[in-house]
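Example record

Each entry pairs one chain with its bound ligand, nicotinamide-adenine-dinucleotide.
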Amino acid sequence: MSDRYLTLVNSPVGSAVAQRVGLPRPAKLRRYAVGEPLLTGPALLASTSGKIPAALRRALTTAGVDVTETLPEGGSLAAVVLDARSLAKPGDLAALREVLSPGVKALGASGRVIVLGRPADGADVGADATRQALDGIVRSLAKELRRGATANLLWVEEGADSSASLPSALRFFLSGKAAYVDGQPLRIGSGAASAPKDWDHPLAGKTALVTGAARGIGEAIAGVLARDGAQVIVADLTQAGEALARVANRLRGTALHLDVASPEAPQRLLDHLGAHTDGLDILIHNAGITRDKLMANMKPQQWDSVIAVNLESQLRINAALLDSAQLRAQSRVVCLSSTTGLSGNRGQTNYGATKAGVIGLVRSSAPAFAAHGDSTINAIAPGFIETEMTAKMPLATREVARRLSSLQQAGLPIDVAEAVAWLSSPGAGGVNGQVLRVCGQNLVGA
Ligand SMILES: NC(=O)c1ccc[n+]([C@@H]2O[C@H](COP(=O)([O-])OP(=O)(O)OC[C@H]3O[C@@H](n4cnc5c(N)ncnc54)[C@H](O)[C@@H]3O)[C@@H](O)[C@H]2O)c1
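Structure tokens for the complex follow.
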């Protein structure tokens, strides 16, 4: 418990909030370190049909997971993986309770619950309603879990088991890489996903460009992409040049001074790629700004600059890349959205517009990227992350926002970076046009 928290619970506002959420005791989250096993103990594997698909079992055992089909007596579980794809009617949901009730009791610190469901298909209303029930179960369960444990839901399309798609998703969601992803559903398709030669370096041989990479989340993203084997180009404004050079040197990458909102940005980017690379595999649209004002007081400059940097730049750069020979097949584009784009936030109509716009961009352009040699484009919506951007918030607001997540703490830039890196990997080819929240299931922005 930090001193700030102690101060907070002793203030009138803080004590009321603490009482309401039940005296938060934030846990130290298990985060990924290269070479560490995926899980620190056994994973209970169960199925609502009573029969566990061989491909699912294989996906876990080949990832080094110690799979058990019975609860270890008195022992603790590192994860519960429940295949609920057989559900057809509400009565079938009882099978989930039978597994999850004892399963979560045995779940250790930073444990994982992963439920696999079938996406609704309109063939049978009873089946579709029952499938959707999983969403309510997982979101509610995530709010009940403590000690840094999380619950997430994977909507698995037909065929995703047999490609690298489901195995790759399981590795991400079970590992410390997904420490701050909680209470989230994600659709796992059977699109062109391939297993990397080395799961510890899934981006080996790839070239990646990250915008706004001189500090904060962008710097963390560039660091994780480099750790995973990519050659990185870090881009930022000329005035961030010194910090940018430091990042580039540390990561053995190259620096590009680029104002993404400038009219010549797309061409400058293409010229740089043409001169220094054999093409681009990964593009991360991370550069972003806030110019917060209530709508009643919003000035044209505050409005226009946020739209230009956070949204228009991404549209223009994507269009230029898709038209060029610089974007390779099976490329990955990840765009930074925000939970503000999903929920809105007071004083952020301009920012909220752009972060919702990014979600529209991703959904609308997914087919064009798929047609470009099975490429993908997705968005990450971070919640409250500890950066210079959020350090500017008033202390009380910041402390309350931290504790209102199911994990009772803010996320770190590395948490966003891990999710971005997974969506950038060859195994994530079955995820396209989607939004993944990295927010610890925060009530702010829910
Ligand atoms: N920090 C959070 O809690 C949070 C939450 C949700 C979303 N996000 C998003 O994540 C991204 C990174 O956020 P952060 O907190 O690291 O921000 P930050 O302000 O710490 O860093 C942003 C970086 O982008 C660069 N940049 C700004 N305008 C640029 C331009 N026109 N061209 C090139 N680079 C430019 C800045 O120089 C800076 O290095 C942003 O898109 C932000 O909206 C952040």
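Residues 207-438 form a domain with the Rossmann fold fold (CATH 3.40.50.720).
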